Amino acid sequence: MKGVNAMPVRKTRYIDCDILVIGGGFGGCGATYEARYWGRELRIVLAEKANIERSGAVAHGLSAINCYMGMRWGENQPEDFVRYARGDLMGLVREDLIYDIARHVDATVHKFEEWGLPIMLNPETGRYQREGRWQIMIHGESYKPIIAEAARKSASEVHNRIMVTHLLKDRTRPGRIAGAIGFGVRDGHCYVFRAKAVIVAAGGASHIFRARSLGEGMGRTWYAPWSSASAYGLLLQAGARMIQMENRIVLARFKDGYGPVGAWFLLLKAYATNAYGEQYESKYLEPLKAMVGERYALSQPMPTCLRNHAMLEEIKAGRGPIYMHTQEVLDSPKKEELGWEDFLDMTVGQAVVWASQNIDPKEKASELITSEPYVMGSHATCSGAWASGPEDCAPADYQWGYNRMTTVDGLFGAGDTIGGSAHKFSSGSFTEGRIAGKAAVRYVMEQGRETPQIDEAEVERLKGLIFKPRETYDVWRNEIVAGSVAPGYITPLQGLLRLEKLMDEYAGGISTFYMTSAPMLERGLELMTMLKEDLDRLGAEDLHQLQRAWELHHRVLTSEAVLRHTLYRQETRWPGYYYRGDFPRLDDDTWHVFTASRYDARTGEWEMGTLPVHHLIS
Amino acid sequence: MPTFAYMTRCDGCGQCVDICPSDIMHIDPTYRRAYNIEPNFCWECYSCVKACPQQAIDVRGYADFAPLGHSVRVRRDEVSNTVSWKIRYRDGRLKEFTFPIRTTPWGSIKPPSAYPQPDQEALDSPLLAHEPEALMIERLPVLPRA
Fold first, then answer.
1. Active site residue A342
2. A352 and B66 in contact by Cβ < 8 A?
3. Facing residue for A224 by CB, picked from B43, B105, B113
4. Does one domain contain both A381 and A354?
5. How far apart are CA A39 and CA A438, in angstroms?
6. Residue A352 sits in the same domain as residue A268
7. Are A443 and A484 contained in the same domain?
8. Which helix (H) or strand (E) segment is A283 a member of?
């Protein structure tokens, strides 16, 4: 796009609103819908980096809803779900937040069905077709466009193609949110949002660890490549308290395409073996008992990280490839169709792997592998912000304000943003958005009469910072003939590759089989300091590259949090997600707590500590 | 599986540019046709393929692990509300599937402001919109405070 990037006149657009929602994925769409339901007269503005019709982690579609209780049929109660998520996360979750999502999520799913999402029914029971205990099967190719329609009808304005780079604080009260700033990826203007409450529903982090695939294949990460850690990057800069940033997730999926395995394991009852046909998981129970203790090793179902651990041990022992035996279960045309739809609805690339490698799942097993690590708050992992819990059931020290409000006054979160509440997935993220949306309306009605004032000097400073990579490129570009090697700047991609290499080699990526230690993390932090300094010298050729530059800023700050949290927790809590070689066992006496951090953007200093884990359900 | 546009079919309308979640479908300023500016940031989500009115966009599997000779084509139709797939294997085998995408007409969702305005009591309660009816159980579960 060289033609349109000849630096047009840059304007500053001010947008005033009561509630600003940042990120139009499932969390943001839920927040927008719910805020409108309760706040009929309020100005509710949704800002999205791409186009909400197809944005966020569900842009592609989905083949299942992974969080549905089925309370109407007495299938599960919210307490059951809390026990499940707690077991899967090796004991460390915010039970109040998970309970809160679980008790509301059925209403969300029923609304999705009313809006037109095709949910598969069990012909025998007439109920939703279960994939597993918590999952239901859908025809979900248009899951996101359906949800986007509801959000569009709820927002006062939707601003697509706005990359939000920073949150803004009140001029006189530094603990109070006042809005956000960013730029238009199409028009190149600066956007300043002035808001009484802000809900961050941005994405978690792909591409902070080196991906297994190379070149073009870099795009086929398991989590979307556009999930650029803004959920954490924005909050860290604003000084919000974060928890569990070490709790990265590694996924066992079909190799290279990263197609989902849930329907194959749970619904079609396929099984995985090593290369010699052996089902290997049970033989790791005894060693796992020694590593993490009986209580966690025997947790049912087996925690995701421990299943990863078994697979990794098999691969290390040379007994790979690991195979999913699809050919054993596709014994009818209906099942074959189900298996294919599972991919075509949400991971078309896996179908391409099969077509290109001549693998017919009816005839042949398919390889499984563990992915590169990701940092998220919505899947089988729970990194994110420390949030105030539901008023009617959160313990006193989990509660200081409105539901899902962070430690910054007036700043709310949903989806990947909020820490401690794993297993939200699509329906739970939308539900958490609804919870935050209602709470933000109450906040605005009760606290927000006094409009916060942004600091114009700070806006001017940030404007300079935001567009600096464009200027850096224009200035230093003239020093070289052509090409990508320049002494004065690095491109966003060059910076990203340095980040991924650093995290991979020092923070427990694929190249060390997820192993790290204090000396490795400390060396990683030394290199990270220099990478952070070099971010001042990013060069962006055009507005697209400027978006990439700010995505990299968010990823780098998030990665630093991952390094520091990983260093702080002196145990191996989730073997199969990562290992501390210097503390190879789970240590419940000391570490049955959340790790917590707060970043001071002005000084660059981190304050580390712990927060208590309360068990509310037996 | 990065996307690419067939030169002879693309008319440069820009719908792929508008929809791409990764902001990587752009219009070539010289040829006025769409192209993928960053194949290594393509998630092969098919959003652009489905949005293209000319069926001009196709995909070729990621070069680092997908051997050549395959094709996965799609047609998404918002009138019949179906999505149809045609999968051609490297060895020529063919598979075809059609799935539903929506059970209601596009644009038919009732906006939240079309429901009766909730009262202050509801606002102060833990209930969300449409609850408890939409839960399809009598009342919202509450956890006894520890």
1. yes
2. yes
3. B43
4. no
5. 8
6. yes
7. no
8. none
The verdict on A81 and A198 lying in the same domain is yes
Nearest residue in B to A113, CA atom = B103
Is A139 marked active-site? no
Given a contact cutoff of 8 angstroms between Cβ atoms, the answer to whether A254 and A370 are in contact is no
How many helices (H) and strands (E) are present in chain B, helices listed first? 3, 7
Q: Indicate yes or no: CB of B85 within 8 angstroms of CB of A344.
A: yes
Q: Of A370, A392, A418, which residue constitutes the final position of a domain?
A: A370
| ipTM (interface pTM) | 0.98
Work out the end-to-end distance of chain B between its first and last CA atoms, rounded to an integer number of angstroms: 51
**A458: annotated active-site residue:** no
Q: Give pTM, 2 decimals.
A: 0.97
* B 17-46 → A contacts, CB under 8 A: 18-24, 26-27, 29, 37-46
> Has residue A514 been placed in a domain?
yes
Provide, as residue numbers in chain B, all residues whose Cβ is less than 8 Å from the Cβ of A616. Answer: 143, 146
Q: Which residue has the tokens 């802000």?
A: A198
- Mean pLDDT, 10 residues at a time, chain A of 618 residues: 56 97 98 98 98 97 97 97 97 98 98 98 97 97 98 98 98 96 98 98 98 94 97 98 98 95 91 97 96 95 96 98 96 93 94 96 96 97 98 94 97 98 97 98 89 95 97 94 93 98 98 98 98 98 98 98 98 98 98 98 96 96
A125 burial type by CB count under 10 A (0-12 exposed, 13-18 middle, 19+ buried): exposed
- Give the integer Cα–Cα distance in Å for B146 and B142: 12
Do A111 and B134 make contact, defined as CB atoms within 8 angstroms? yes
Residues A115 and B109 sit within 8 Å (Cβ to Cβ): yes
Contact between residue A453 and residue A501 where contact means Cβ atoms under 8 Å apart: no
The secondary structure of B36-83 as a DSSP string is: ES-GGG-----HHHHH-TT--EEE---TTT--SS-EEEEEEETTTTEE
Question: Is B136's CB within 8 Å of A104's CB?
Answer: no
When scoring A137, A220, A444 by the number of chain B Cβ atoms within 10 A, the one with the most, hence best to mutate, is: A220
In this structure, what CATH number is given to the domain that contains residue A154? 3.50.50.60
pLDDT tens figures, A448-494: 778 899 999 999 999 999 999 999 999 999 999 999 999 999 999 99
State whether A394 and A334 are in the same domain.
no
Q: Is residue B64 within 8 angstroms of chain A, CB to CB?
A: yes
Q: How many domains does chain A have?
A: 3
Give the pLDDT score at A1. 43
A77 and A197 part of one domain: yes
Q: Domains of chain B by range and CATH?
A: 3-100 (3.30.70.20)
Question: How far is A106 from B121, CA to CA, in rounded Å?
Answer: 22
* Same structural domain, A333 and A394: no
**Within a domain: A63:** yes
CB within 8 Å of chain A, chain B residues 71-130 = 71-72, 74, 76, 83, 85, 87-91, 93, 95, 97, 99-109, 111-113, 115, 117-118, 123-124, 126, 128-130
- Whether A4 sits inside 8 A of B145 (CB atoms) is no
Contacts of A34 in chain B (CB under 8 A): 112, 128-129
Residue span of the structural domain in which A339 resides: 253-370
